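FAQ

Q: What does a record look like?
A: Structure on top, sequence underneath. For example:
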């Protein structure tokens, strides 16, 4: 009896070029816009996607009046495609010794920037010397506004301590900070130098003092950490910041009955878009791996 031949699945593969075109179409949701970005004709792009659909034996796109949307198989393929492309580009960048290139617009609160950014950027630049990270420092609420306006690609932000563990990179305690030797019990009301009124440190300080029945006044509310710490150094106010960011010449006030305990905050990343660009995704992964060790 003649043996029945099976389909030669080894001859089919997910070619990088096809996956890259597919990922661009999935992002812009139109063949015409994708063709302009990639630098191919729309006809050539259509032929590429026809070939990709033949390889996976699934329809990947559904046409609409405004462009295309991904089918369920298309959504599933996109998850794999983004991972394959990221690993491919990282491997090529590593072996070529040049690293990835491009620009990332990154947002970071002042207190994290002072401590975490130098090693984060230094290590990332060592692997990707042609990548540029443009940094904006601002409190978390302002960074979220910038993400919503598409002015940032990625931001490191603060969340309340009861935030779900999923996606949390690190947790940091908030602490009372003053000039060494300055006793908060000698002040009534307690003068405070705090960040913007809608930030976690500002809210935590005021709520803690209210619960403790301690009178206070906000001597300075500013989005600038440098401005707040300058007032603390002058002996005119006390501040609330993350423990890691306390400067060596300032004192953490702990166990003082005049100051109630403060909560811990969670640190996570937030993207401007659901599917970030490969360079942004690589930088985010670098932060997730590095930040817990700093």
């Amino acid at each position: 009896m003649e043996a029945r031949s099976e389909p030669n699945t080894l001859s089919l593969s997910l070619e990088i070029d096809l996956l890259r075109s597919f990922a661009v179409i999935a992002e812009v949701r139109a063949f015409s816009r994708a063709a302009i970005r990639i630098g191919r004709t729309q006809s050539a792009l259509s032929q590429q996607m026809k070939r990709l659909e033949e390889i996976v034996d699934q329809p990947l796109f559904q046409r609409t009046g405004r462009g295309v949307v991904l089918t369920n198989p298309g959504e599933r393929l996109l998850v794999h495609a983004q991972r394959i492309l990221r690993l491919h580009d990282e491997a090529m960048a590593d072996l070529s010794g040049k690293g990835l290139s491009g620009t990332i617009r990154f947002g970071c609160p002042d207190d994290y920037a002072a401590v975490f950014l130098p090693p984060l950027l230094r290590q990332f630049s060592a692997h990707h010397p042609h990548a540029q990270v443009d940094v904006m420092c601002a409190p978390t609420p302002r960074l979220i506004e910038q993400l919503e306006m598409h002015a940032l690609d990625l931001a490191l932000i603060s969340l309340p301590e009861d935030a779900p563990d999923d996606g949390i990179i690190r947790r940091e305690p908030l602490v009372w900070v003053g000039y060494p030797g300055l006793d908060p019990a000698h002040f009534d009301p307690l003068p405070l130098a705090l960040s913007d009124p809608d930030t976690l440190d500002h809210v935590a300080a005021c709520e803690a003092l209210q619960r403790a029945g301690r009178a206070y006044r906000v001597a300075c509310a500013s989005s600038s950490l440098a401005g707040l710490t300058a007032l603390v150094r002058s002996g005119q106010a006390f501040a609330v910041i993350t423990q890691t960011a306390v400067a060596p010449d300032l004192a953490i006030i702990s166990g003082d009955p005049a100051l109630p305990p403060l909560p811990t905050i969670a640190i996570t990343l937030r993207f401007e878009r659901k599917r970030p660009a490969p360079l942004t995704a690589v930088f985010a992964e670098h932060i997730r791996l590095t930040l817990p060790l700093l």
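Q: Is there anything notable about this one?
A: The first helix runs from residue 16 to 28.
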